[in-house]
Write a structure and sequence with these properties.
The protein is of the alpha/beta class. The chain is 59% helix and 11% strand. This is Transcriptional antiterminator.
């Protein structure tokens, strides 16, 4: 139970710190309130202390003090510390989650007065919080009902109510500071598959339920039926079963469409749900209606199972999967490959992984079940292009299955695509050279491909053809004869490819892979530095200008407005053009001013609606560089790769959005 109000906590602190009685007049002066207000606070504090078997003594003309031993005093100080710490921690958003928890965990009606007292804030603050709470509940089709003299209550469909509780649990789990306020002391079994944070939140919401029993029954179901849920799916099922039990005990049960229930009864997952609910009925001595069994079976249908993709036969998976799902998976892969401009089509691991993911995912989408994706924000931030490719695939689900894909599921699809992209990046591209003819080359290629999955054989050829072959994309040459004067490393093997040859190729390619990864890391660091020089507010598409002076002044003004340069920078950039043109070919110009006038290194960029004259050249892409020496070196190292790449320049010219310009540069 919380302290009556914030001031009573401070009064309690003063009383605990004073060895002697303290008079009410002194307390009133301390808080700048009347003696009557202090007496009212003391009365409430007295009731609070009585519940803890501690006496507050008040004696006229003597003062007020607390009568307690050292153990009781220590416990009071601990409770006081926790109450004051909680008050400091509760930001408006955390306070709103706390209110949601209070309203959703029970059927009893809360009043604004009660919430204000519990949270040590005014009723007007609670009123504002309830507006936000109302918005959160509306996402689930739930209504916050407020009646004068009756209190506040959440109303709405039972399924929507349960989904809201499950999602709130996920939000509370991720809030470290709020967890300190809501959690109770709990201890998990050593082999528990529910993480401590989830368990604490469950105990906070449903303290009377023995979650160990639910865990035990789910584990028995796994053993009996020969499958294994992922830990995330396992915890999700425990949550949904706990919510179901709590609501059943409150007389709130799910009503399911009879046709949907009959369809579910024919599925294997319904039998699993029956097994679980029969066990629950025996242990908890409750009756679980068939509609609830159906509801649990829906969660099982949408749950992820532990799968070892490497051990799965592609043929077995595809033959035992609905052909529509396989078709969707293949189209997702083809579309993503096209968007990302990579070759995914031969990646069997991607196909199997995606098919195994889509089986429960489609059930979740079909039946309106949610699966939170804790990595979603990270995926969107770190892999925007892969996430975009996954989003593009959403039309395929609508086309073949008539269902809309939510952002959480798109994130999971992006994970599979991202893993496939990593596999491509980690493959060593090799050419096989052999003097014994194409048959021996194919034998070598076959043996290497069978034993070393990290090598991609790009070509088989005779030694004399190497001179005319473009080897720019090739990482290594594997040859049966000595080869000299090549930029790429050469690994010499025997025509029969012995075990020693395999080990040699493995060792050498591992070194090459380490070098590639080091180069990639260096490139990532370089691109990150370039990204810091760019700002969407300093990028302009299809500007209509008539001269280089006009565009330099315009872009310089944008930099000046954002405190990136001093005013003298503008004149120095114009003066440089009088000395020599900064047109660098391929319709690109890179005007720049003196480094002394740069406050923060930035680049302003513009594509032009019509080309303009720039010295002896015609220009329609302008990079205005406001760079200090260090950043200048980083930029030019990367910029020359763009300038020498006609495709990159064309992409820049054809970009219609600021985002596309940044992508073209990076």
């Amino acid at each position: 139970m919380n302290l009556p109000n914030k001031r009573s906590g401070k009064i309690l602190r003063i009383l605990l710190n004073n060895q002697k009685p303290i008079i009410i007049k002194k307390l009133a002066k301390e808080f700048d309130v009347s003696a009557r207000t202090i007496r009212s606070d003391l009365k409430k504090l007295e009731e609070w202390l009585e519940l803890r078997n501690i006496t507050l003594i008040k004696k006229p003309r003597v003062g007020v003090w607390i009568e307690c031993d050292s153990v009781e005093k220590t416990e009071l100080e601990r409770q006081l510390f926790k109450a004051q710490k909680n008050n400091d921690l509760l930001s408006p958003s955390r306070r709103q989650k706390y209110i949601l928890k209070c309203l959703l965990e029970t059927d009893k009606q809360y009043t604004m007065k009660l919430l204000a007292e519990e949270l040590y804030v005014s009723r007007s603050t609670i009123y504002k919080d309830l507006k936000k709470v109302e918005t959160w509940l509306s996402k689930y089709g739930l209504i916050l009902e407020r009646k004068r003299n009756c209190g506040i209550k959440v109303r709405g469909d039972e399924k929507k109510w349960r989904k809201a509780v499950a999602d709130l649990l996920a939000e509370l789990k991720g809030d470290q500071e709020l967890k300190k306020i809501l959690e109770k002391e709990t201890s998990l079994e050593p082999d528990s598959r529910i993480d401590t944070k989830t368990y604490q939140q469950l105990k906070s919401l449903f303290g009377d339920i023995d979650f160990r029993n639910i865990e035990k029954i789910l584990k028995e179901a796994e053993n009996e039926l020969g499958f294994l849920f992922t830990d995330e799916a396992f915890a999700g099922l425990v949550i949904h079963i706990a919510i179901s039990i709590e609501r059943l005990e409150q007389g709130k049960d799910i009503k399911m469409d009879q046709e949907q229930l009959n369809n579910l009864k024919a599925k294997e997952e319904f039998k699993v749900a029956e097994y679980i609910t029969t066990k629950l009925e025996n242990i908890l001595k409750i009756k679980i209606p068939k509609d609830e069994v159906g509801y649990i079976s829906l969660h099982i249908l949408g749950a992820k199972l532990q799968q070892n993709i490497q051990t799965k036969s592609v043929t077995d998976v595809l033959e035992n999967t609905d052909s529509k799902i396989v078709k969707v998976a293949k189209e997702v892969i083809n579309l993503a490959a096209e968007v990302l401009e990579v070759e995914f089509q031969d990646d069997k691991q991607l196909l199997v992984g995606l098919v195994l993911h889509l089986r429960p995912a489609i059930n979740r989408l079909k039946y309106g079940m949610s699966l939170r994706n804790p990595l979603l924000d990270r995926i969107k931030e770190d892999y925007p292009s892969v996430f975009g490719a996954a989003w593009a695939s959403s039309i395929i689900f609508e086309k073949h299955l008539g269902i809309k894909v939510n952002e959480e599921e798109v994130g999971y699809i992006a994970l599979h695509l991202g893993a496939a992209l990593e596999r491509i990046n980690k493959k060593i591209k090799a050419v096989i050279v052999c003097s014994s003819g194409i048959g021996t080359s194919q034998l070598i290629a076959s043996r290497l491909a069978k034993r070393l999955s990290g090598i991609e054989i790009m070509d088989l050829m005779a030694a004399h053809k190497l001179k005319n072959k473009n080897l720019e994309e090739i990482d290594v040459i594997i040859s049966t004869i000595p080869l000299n004067d090549l930029e790429q490393p050469v690994i010499q093997v025997s025509p029969l490819v012995t075990e020693n040859d395999i080990n040699l190729v493995k060792q050498k390619t591992n070194y090459i892979l380490q070098d590639k990864e080091a180069e990639k890391l260096e490139l990532d660091l370089e691109l990150n530095k370039i990204h810091q020089l760019l700002n969407q507010n300093l990028i302009f598409v299809n500007l209509d200008v008539e001269s280089k002076e006009e565009i330099i002044k315009f872009l310089s003004q944008q930099l000046l407005d954002r405190n990136s340069i001093k005013e003298d920078f503008i004149e120095s950039a114009l003066d440089r053009e009088k000395i020599t043109s900064t047109g660098v070919g391929n319709k690109v110009a890179i005007p720049h001013g003196k480094e002394d006038y740069v406050l923060e290194s930035k680049i302003a960029i513009a594509t032009l609606e019509n080309p303009i004259k720039w010295g002896a050249e015609s220009v329609n892409i302008v990079f205005l560089l406001a760079l200090k020496n260090k950043e200048s070196k980083v930029f030019f190292k990367h910029f020359h790769k763009i300038l020498d790449n006609p495709k990159a320049i064309k992409k820049l010219e054809e970009s219609t959005t600021k985002e596309n310009i940044i992508k073209s540069i990076l």
